[in-house]
């Protein structure tokens, strides 16, 4: 059994994956060209992804693409809190918030968010654990070597799979010792976050290794650079490549949360794979 507890939700991920729709409310988000910075366009995009079958949405106010400029907490709050508030008011959507800041986590959980997706695995602001604990929120711990500003300068590992897995194991232990419920924690290898092309490919090939941690695994590969390197396609033409990687991970039952821009094709792929598996 693989249960993920996120506030009042008990999600059984033993046989079913979740499709997480990406909702960037950032002017420089690498794939949306920042058109979702406005509240109404963000809500329109959210409703579109929910209509396409997204199980949850990941709302982010600070771009995490390589070299992105950091965003101050006031600006990040201005961007994400109104979106979470309106989504909670208008929909029954399960909401994840992509942030590393304690005050953004607290404010969005207070508005009804269910999950904190922290690309720093709660290292940048350890106080983020307080609202996560208080609201019994779900939390996604992602591996990143360095910061979005430095991570792609010279990624290096002696054994990338072992080091990423050990890092995630250590972070799980740290959170449990800090009073976070073990079954509210999900993990993520952080594809593209301080990894060369080879590191990304090895992590994907050996993804089953992370099952040893017995936690839901989130995988975010949608439209990322390594897909372009292999297919030769530009960012806005990487749906097939992204879905193929998702299918590979799902078929090996190595990922339970798939974080994507293109919800409809991913939902179809998940449904087909699970229909075959459960037939
Ligand atoms: C915010 N963000 C961008 N890429 C991501 C990934 O691969 N995983 C997670 N958890 N968050 C991501």
Automatic annotation (TrEMBL):
<protein>
    <recommendedName>
        <fullName>Dihydropteroate synthase</fullName>
        <ecNumber>2.5.1.15</ecNumber>
    </recommendedName>
</protein>
<comment type="pathway">
    <text>Cofactor biosynthesis; tetrahydrofolate biosynthesis; 7,8-dihydrofolate from 2-amino-4-hydroxy-6-hydroxymethyl-7,8-dihydropteridine diphosphate and 4-aminobenzoate: step 1/2.</text>
</comment>
<dbReference type="GO" id="GO:0046872">
    <property type="term" value="F:metal ion binding"/>
</dbReference>
<comment type="similarity">
    <text>Belongs to the DHPS family.</text>
</comment>
<dbReference type="InterPro" id="IPR045031">
    <property type="entry name" value="DHP_synth-like"/>
</dbReference>
<keyword id="KW-0479">Metal-binding</keyword>
<dbReference type="GO" id="GO:0046654">
    <property type="term" value="P:tetrahydrofolate biosynthetic process"/>
</dbReference>
<feature type="domain" description="Pterin-binding">
    <location>
        <begin position="17"/>
        <end position="271"/>
    </location>
</feature>
<keyword id="KW-0460">Magnesium</keyword>
<dbReference type="GO" id="GO:0004156">
    <property type="term" value="F:dihydropteroate synthase activity"/>
</dbReference>
<dbReference type="InterPro" id="IPR006390">
    <property type="entry name" value="DHP_synth_dom"/>
</dbReference>
<dbReference type="InterPro" id="IPR011005">
    <property type="entry name" value="Dihydropteroate_synth-like_sf"/>
</dbReference>
<keyword id="KW-0289">Folate biosynthesis</keyword>
<keyword id="KW-0808">Transferase</keyword>
<comment type="function">
    <text>Catalyzes the condensation of para-aminobenzoate (pABA) with 6-hydroxymethyl-7,8-dihydropterin diphosphate (DHPt-PP) to form 7,8-dihydropteroate (H2Pte), the immediate precursor of folate derivatives.</text>
</comment>
<dbReference type="InterPro" id="IPR000489">
    <property type="entry name" value="Pterin-binding_dom"/>
</dbReference>
<dbReference type="GO" id="GO:0046656">
    <property type="term" value="P:folic acid biosynthetic process"/>
</dbReference>
<dbReference type="Pfam" id="PF00809">
    <property type="entry name" value="Pterin_bind"/>
</dbReference>
<dbReference type="GO" id="GO:0005829">
    <property type="term" value="C:cytosol"/>
</dbReference>
